[in-house]
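Collaboration report, partner site 2.

Our partner group contributed sequences for two proteins of shared interest, and the home lab folded both. The records are reproduced in the order in which they were received, starting with the first partner submission.
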Amino acid sequence: MMIRFATNSYKHDSLPISAQRALNLYAERQPQDAKSPVTVHGVPGITTFATLGEGPIRGFRKLGGILYVVSGPWLYSVTNAAIPVVTRLGGQILGSGVVSMADNGDQLMIVNGSNGYVYDTTAGFRIVSRQMSLPAPTQLAETLFRCGRTLLEKEATGIPYRLIGIGVGDIQDAADADPMDLADPGATQRRKVEAAIDAVRAKLGKESIGKGRGIEVKRR
């Protein structure tokens, strides 16, 4: 028995007129002397590569040839293989929104806006989280740096850290950021300095200007 395929498949808005539809396939008419008058060819598509928890997928990053994915509250690793190996590494990463992820080659930093989580590829998970509330919204990197430095001083007990991150939350309107503070007379000058730096970077590139503490010192 020969099954006839439609070579001009289409689906009309009114199905009684035409309900033909080729899904993930297309038919191609062959010459009269071919073994079959019509061949059917597949088209590019997607298939499930791996399943990671119940979701939602909140972020992912590649480190050392391994894909690390935050799904729901958990961190997973996915190997690069035809049949991937999925491993739940732990975490209990709070929230359900998108996370920020960064690495230094050995450790993975995950920030959910209020907490930071560190996954070491050899030692596993560790969370170090401190937070500080500002009296007003800010757009100044200098303000974030000073807050981070204050929080880090409490943790600087001699234990080495490979990765430090700062996250922000409760985003407000830019018009409300950095109001005048009579108790901090240097705030106005810091705002002007950062505005000037941003203007130069916008014109000449990110690496064109910066503060002295941002200069990377190469150790011998």
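Second partner submission, folded after the first:
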Amino acid sequence: MNLSSAAQAITRNAKMAGGCEGLFLIAIFPVQICTGPNSQVNIIDTTVIAVTFGSLAASFINAAFATGGVYVTLLVSVWVLPISSAIPLQSAFAAGSLAARIYFFWQHIKWSLVAAFVLGCLFGVYFGIQTFATVSESTISFLLGITLLILIWAPSWKHGMPIKHPFFFVGVVHSYLGALFGVGGVLQPIILRTDLIKLQIVGTLSACMITLDVMKVTGYVSLGFSYFDYIPHIVGATLAGFLGTWIGKRVTHRISEQAFRRVFKILVSLVALRLIYLGWTTA
């Protein structure tokens, strides 16, 4: 049966079931349009659309401003999905964008730094996943809100690392926070203070993050989390990631970074306060 015949068969079944005149598949989003007594346009899963547009915005921000996109993906996810699902999904949502950057910047990756970071992640992810499994959703919501406020409003640390080889310890702390809250917030500001050039930072950061994400996914799966239940979300986020990057690179010089950061901090703060409120009232 070809696609047209299949669509006609589905439409006939839909009419028999409830008076629906058409059933369309728009990209990966199933949309059913009905004109019967209870006429409505019913988007089967609006969370897929929200996550896709969130990932589009996140990748646009990463391409235009170098950082900040991770917060957008996290904020949209925790807004439309349970925190117990949103946090494990952050790794899957970022995978496509990270893989593309590794491909294009492979020759610039500083592998010695990646190795030290990954070694630390082995410890951080293990303890982070264990904490995630034992802490209630309301507690995670409350602590995530506080963590976001700290990461957004804390002053920049302008001094060098007090130890000679810091990235093992950076891996431990960043991966622990990332496994527990979905965002680490430690590696990015520290790697920007190294002597790596921009191309090396992009490639090295991507290699560190995608390796960490593989560890996190393995840990969440070991707890019983099923990524197969969110295939449409993951596909949508991946496709949107490539599109957002393409757009962001073309408008990066047309947007005031200062104005963006001011509005961005306010939006993140509002969502953080909402998470704190939900965590406090549902405890």
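Feedback sent to the partner group on the second submission included the following. The chain is about 70% helix and 5% strand. The two ends are 53 Å apart (CA to CA).
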